[in-house]
Each structure stands twice: as C-alpha cells, then as structure tokens.
Amino acid sequence: MLHDDPPDDTAAKLTPPPKLPPPADVKLIQRITIGNFAQVWRGSLMDSQGSIISVVAKMYSQRDFEAMNKETHAYRLLSCHQLDNIAPLHYGTFTMPDDSWGAVILSDAGEASHCYSWDEAELSSEELRTVWKYANALHSIGLHHHDLEPRNVAKDRDGVLRILDFERSSLDRLCPCGELERLGHAFDELMEWR
Q1: Angle at which helices 125-140 and 178-190 pack, to 10 degrees?
Q2: CA distance linking residue 103 with residue 22, whole number of Å
Q3: Second label for 6, Cα 20 to 30 Å away, from 20, 51, 71, 157?
Q4: Quick one: which of 91, 93, 183, 105 has its CA closest to 139?
Q5: CATH 3.30.200.20: does it fit domain 27-107?
C-alpha cells in the first residue's frame, strides 16, 4: 500500500475525542479562513494562571467529525512522542452536547503560507531542512500527513515553523514512502538544501 493513499480503515483506528465541555474562557476574535473541513478562527484563551494565550480554534460541523478526530489524534500522538515542537500545541477538543459541531483548540502558530507550491513559498534552504526534518519525524512515529504543502506550514514572529492541518493524516508504521520522496524531489528542484 502506498502512503499517498490513506487506508480505508483509518477512521476505524481513530478513537473519537472525549466529550469535554467547551473551554469557558476561549474568545474568538477573527475568522482566518474556511477550509475543506473546518472554519479556522484566531482567538484567545485564559490559562490557569490568568494569562491570555493566543489560540486558533478549528470549528467542525458534525459531518466533518472524522477529520476533526484525525486532527485530534495526530496532535495527541505528537505530544505522546514529545514532538510538540513540530505542530501547534493542542489545548483540547470538544463537541457540543447535541453533537452539532465541535472544535479543536490549538496554540497560534503564526501565519500559514497561502501558496500551493514550494517554489511560490520562497522558503530558505534552512527552512526546507526544517520542514524535511519535521516530515521525517512524523513518519518515524507512523504519522503520514498526506497534504504536506506550504499552505500547511505556518511561521511565527520568531521565524519558527510548524506543520498544520492533520485532517487527512493516517497512521501506518510501514513507510516506502511516496510522501517523503515527493517532498525531497520538490525541494531538490528548488535549490541545494541537503
């Protein structure tokens, strides 16, 4: 099986997130985008010490709960393997009591590129190496992104990159691996980066 194609039973392997009450202190400020699966909002959250944290809320309708569950599972897996630096921090996932919609609350990782090709993204060789290192780390724990494009890489004010949008991801310990081969080839065509 190629890793480009998510296995049909991926959803069966993922357990739904527990039903948690919505965080009372999340305030949505500005809609960032409407994606294929979720509306993405920038907001704030008050932590237990009373500090305000910038967050992103990805809001899913019930029909997209499978994508929400994949996203949640990916963040939990990254945290379990102490790879929190690769993606935004996951503060929680919840659904409304009537299951009409749910949300994934993440740290604000900065601005995502709006580019659909690596050439347009104009990343430096160092940034390409970082994305490559992150992609390899994902695969080392059996997590395959399946949509690793520049639009799914964010950069914060300090220039730190994070991978976003794990809604199409799948788990598979085998790695032949088409996703990494395509990524390496795309980077090779841009510049000397290795």
Answers
A1: 170
A2: 8
A3: 20
A4: 183
A5: yes
